[in-house]
Queue: 2 jobs
Job 1
Amino acid sequence: MTALAPTHDKASQAKLRHPAPETDGEAALVSARNVDVYYGDKQALIDISLDVPPNQVTSLIGPSGCGKTTFLRCLNRMNDLIDICRVEGDIHIAGQDIYAPSVDVVALRAQVGMVFQKPNPFPKSIFENVAYGPRIHGLNRSKDELQGIVENSLQRAGLWDEVSDRLNQPATGLSGGQQQRLCIARAIAVKPKIILMDEPCSALDPIATARIEELIDELRQNFTIIIVTHSMQQAARVSQQTAFFHMGVLVEHGATEQLFTTPHDERTESYITGRIG
Amino acid sequence: MRSEHIVRSFDDELQQIENLVTKMGGMVELQISNATISLVERDIDLGEQVRADDKKIDALEAEIDTAVVRVLALRQPAAQDLRAVVAVLKISTNLERIGDYAKNIAKRSSVIGEFRHIGASANIIKRMSALVQVMLKDALDAHVSRNVALADDVRMRDDEVDQMHNTLFRELLTYMMEDARNITPCMHLLFIAKNVERMGDHVTGIAEQIHYVVSGSLPGDERPKSDVTSLIAITPNDGDRADDDSNDGSRE
């Protein structure tokens, strides 16, 4: 079993603070530089620098506790809700520093939507679940327009055909896979640039998972998707870019195809070949 | 007809690989045809073209290998999907070898061109080659349509290629014994005939992969294997003149 030593010695740390990663010519939508995150005294993320290109799926993989979800939650400032959590470094989305004092986090979280591991529809009707966000953000001028937004969102989430005749029924009556697609519809109803997904399929069966993965493939034409997954097979199937985290460090990132066929770092190779837990 | 994958891009990737195989197969069919023509009609330029075009076949094999590795890494195919991509790896190797044999024939045809025709050898090789070309076309069709019956039929036809090879082998030995000036062209013709016989074997290999894809195992039944050239021995005192009757070419 390969031991993965944390690289905290000075030389490695100096090497870690590397210049901007290559972005392949296209401007990154999300740009993180030298991000450190602490929970109290414990450092959960160490000097993370990563660019996320637009209209692609970027997956964050790594063993439990590696910091991938912590990093994901930095991108829509969900970590603000945790008292002892401290975020340092720079995170820019579409050129704007999202931790600047002037940033409206409510607006940020509409722009950077999130779908969670366990589907969490509101205890409301299917219609209300999707309408709630646009309504409170003032995205519609009329009831008809709101109806249109709801229908459009449900269509794009691949759920409309299954629920169009029961929009007033409770969302909690849907199956797990349907609820997750409802949560995706809810996220896209407020017209985000980015959709964050935190292990969106881990509570779903293989068929429901495949349907979500097909949906992700369609959605990336209009959105940028960042997905945390503990299934590296899912990362291989669904993403174009992959970032491998281990013990708070971003070990390697790049094109998914390259990472899964010829990874550069032996820690990456160990993880993806199942040589470490 | 099997249903599509839920994730459509998976279907697209598998189809892309199948398309590459079909493309490679078409190129190899043409190479066999051109190599044979260059031999029979002593067309040096065509022979050169066949030799140059072999690089494209090699490049396609590399492209197919890359595409298959990619699908294996990124899609974790299972069951028939897995067997299909593994079979493609083997089929592309078979095709590449057939292409090499065609190139080799084209290479030798420029030497042969300096000598007179040896009996009916050119015609026999032409007929063997035509058989192999049809076998290859049918094997590739069987692959696309997953037609096991057609694949099995292709396997059986290799027997005829082997028989013709045996006949030609004996004939060429006889010509060499008759006149030492025949040795050079006959040796080349022997190699050429062997190349065509090996092409037939590789086409059979392709046909067997279709069996594997559909059923999960290679065909178990014995097919007739008639190549006995490794056992043929003719000495100057053998009365092998009976073969004269089958010659339809001139032999000065």
Job 2
Amino acid sequence: MEPTTQPLAPATFYILFALAGGEKHGYAIMRDARAASDSAFDLGPATLYTTIQRLLDAGWIEEAASPEGADSRRRYYGLTTSGNGVLQTELKRMEAIVKRSKALRLRPVRSAS
Amino acid sequence: MSARIYSLLLSLYPAELRHDFGAEMTQVFLEDLEDSYRNCGFRGVARVWWRSFQELLRIALPAEVSKREIAVPIIVYFLQEFYMGGLMFLAPRGPHADMPTSPGQIFGFLFVPGLFSAIITSVALRIGNRSIPVPLNLGKQ
């Protein structure tokens, strides 16, 4: 799969974002994704592994060797160069939106009450 | 107990996902359940189960419905309902005054025959699929 110019789906973004900090197993990815979104994005096992399957197929992540002493039942995943490129593109896109909103002096809408 | 129930739910997910990640999914689910109970008590446990149910509807169900063995009988059912129902709706009423007339009545009248056709189609597809030999990998010797 080619790096996309379209915004990433939330599950894809949070998994890539979690793996940017280093290789992790499934539950650690889930925890980090939740923490990164301030618990706003609740990633379940089915969403997590459906997305991991797609990211592995796309070559954006890869299976990594388990650290010494780690639970042998766990599989670890890491970001590939291509996956890192996709994440950087997404972060730049978000940064550009924030810059643009600042230039437009957008303010959160306040309720009338 | 939770592991057993989740394993049952897993059987509704696509076979490829189950084969590649089934064990990991169960492990992640149980770890999450344990952490949620430790941090939020039964509310946390309820949240984890509710999310699993939502995932089932969002991921497992569409994958299941897109399978030929499920989709074709559903199509057969609705085709029969619309075709037979259309004929009954348009048919002259003369000697058959007791025939259902409103669309609701017609759909109710045709529910059992439609269901029967759908079940027959489903069984036929399953038998047909079983008799198709597994293709050999002719590309690699």
